[in-house]
Amino acid sequence: MFIHFSIMMIIFKKKGKKFSQESYDALFNNIEYNLREMGYGDVAVNKKMKDLNKLLYDILLKIEKTKDNKFKINEKLIFKYFGELKLNDNVNYFKLEEYLINFYDFCFDISPDSMIRGALEFGENYGST
């Protein structure tokens, strides 16, 4: 979820648009609500939210490895969070990389105003392979 969110935020920045604070707040409000529904208390929720915020910014700042102005996934970041993909030319890494690049291209081609709705359509059409 944070990888997708980061890609959308990167696209907004590249297009010179401001990513809405409401979208950011909605994401974290939903996560907080779900943590509370799972029975976490105030202290645990606050700690978890702080950790998740750090995770989002780690991904946001490191996801893109620019090469010739073309979006490229930073494989070191992916391996940091999905270490099992690093094993011996794991075909799943290449599938994930292709999926994320296609997601980036798809979102970049649509207007920022319809990006969230378009990202959901992308997931419905391309995410289940």
Structure notes:
It is a single chain. By secondary structure, this protein is mainly alpha-helical. The chain is 68% helix and 0% strand. Helix 2 (21-37) packs across helix 3. It is globular.
Q: Any key phrases for this structure?
A:
129 residues; mainly alpha; globular; 6 helices
Beta-strand percentage?
Answer: under 5%
Oligomer: single chain
The number of strands is 0
The Cα radius of gyration reads 16 Å
Topology:
Layout: H1 2-14, H2 21-37, H3 42-62, H4 75-81, H5 91-108, H6 115-126
Helix pairs in contact: 1-3, 1-5, 2-3, 5-6
Brief characterization of the structure:
The protein contains 6 helices and no strands.
